[in-house]
Amino acid sequence: MTIVLDAMGSDLFPEPEIQAAVYSARIINEEIILVGDENLIIPRLKTVNLNNAPIRVVHAPDILKMDEHAVEATRQKPQNSMAVGMNLVKSGEARAFVTAGNTGAAFFTAVTTLRRIKGVSRPALSAVLPVKNGKALFMDTGANADCRPEFLLEFAIMGSVYAEKLLGKTSPRVGLLANGEEASKGNELVKGAYPLLQKSNLNFIGNIEPKDFYSGAADVLVTDGFTGNIFIKSSEAVAKVITDNLKELISASPIRKLGYLLAKPAFVALKKMLDPGEIGAAFLLGIDGYVFIGHGRSDARALSNGLALAQRAVDSKVLETIRTEIQNRIMIP
Fold first, then answer.
1. DSSP secondary-structure letter at 68?
2. For residues 313 and 218, what is the distance between their CA atoms, to the nearest angstrom?
3. What pLDDT is recorded for position 250?
4. 161 and 73 in one domain?
């Protein structure tokens, strides 16, 4: 199996990508293709001890910047690293594509290059979040601001496959994000999606409020991308405020500092649990190919974890299972 890593993706490209490629090629024992400007990649690769790591460079002269308009930039720069990398997946030369670049550009390129799985109306970005006693999948995190009820059903089907294959959840519990547990709660989208999920033969457990999700009530939580993006950003902001305030409180007195030293292992574990770099990348579900999008601030460790996730997804045949589940659960002409 060969995995493509966009060498021009992260904020500090290509250094984190090169480090991740060298490390991952050895650990997962798979060929890593670094796609990007070879004039930037190759000189840096020569300074690294590859130790026979299976790494290949494919030239892509165009670079997509984070602040560029996704669609316009992609069209104006057809030889960008995302386009070249995903075409390697499309041709069968590689099995998966990982990037920490512009999310909008990655989404647009994936839809236009690899297309959607038959029966999927809209691809969705997934996020694995820490909840009580484990992790759970949340989607859509921002790919689709406007949704119809049937989109949420598709998200739930794809999310259930992800949770089962990659999170080890048996018969994943699927919830619908709402402002109350009752079936009558929610806006028109939620009220329209509820009966579809109820009839889906998924393990649908009804409406879920945010507090219940973080308490571990569901394995998969679905919503539209607009709500989901606000949900994710709000959760990140609250977590940051709590940790920042905690640091200030700890440093306020010598006794508190001593208490911190005694409790340091717990704080380290908490930091690891909240770190999105532990997962490494979000699986773009619904695309007819394995595409993973990481954060622009991704370091080598986060990118390595994203590559490992891509390998596990391919090995677990997540995409193939999604195709089958969509075909079986949705009437496709």
1. S
2. 21
3. 81
4. no
Backbone angles phi, psi at 3, to 5 degrees: -115, 135
Q: Where are the beta strands (DSSP E) in 103-166?
A: 124-131, 134-139
Residue 113 in contact with residue 75, Cβ under 8 Å? Answer: no
- On whether both 87 and 174 belong to a single domain, the answer is no
Could you report how far apart the first and last alpha carbons of the chain are, in Å?
Answer: 33
Measured CA distances, 310 to 29, 35, 98 (Å): 13, 16, 8
Say which CATH number the domain at 60 has: 3.40.718.10
Domain range for 69 is 1-120+277-318
The verdict on 146 and 211 lying in the same domain is yes
Please report the pLDDT score of residue 67 as a whole number.
Answer: 84
* Spatial separation of the C-alpha atoms in residues 38 and 57, rounded to whole Å: 7
Sign of CA dihedral 189, 192, 195, 201: negative
Q: What is the Cα gyration radius of the chain?
A: 21
Does 326 map to a domain? no
pLDDT of amino acid 333: 45
pTM of the model: 0.90
Helix (H) or strand (E) holding 71: helix 70-76
The answer to whether residue 259 sits within a structural domain is no
User: Which phi and psi angles does 176 have, rounded to 5°?
Assistant: -115, 120
Q: How far is CA 4 from CA 110, 153, 264, 278, in A?
A: 14, 30, 38, 20
Pick the last residue of a domain from 201, 232, 250. Answer: 250
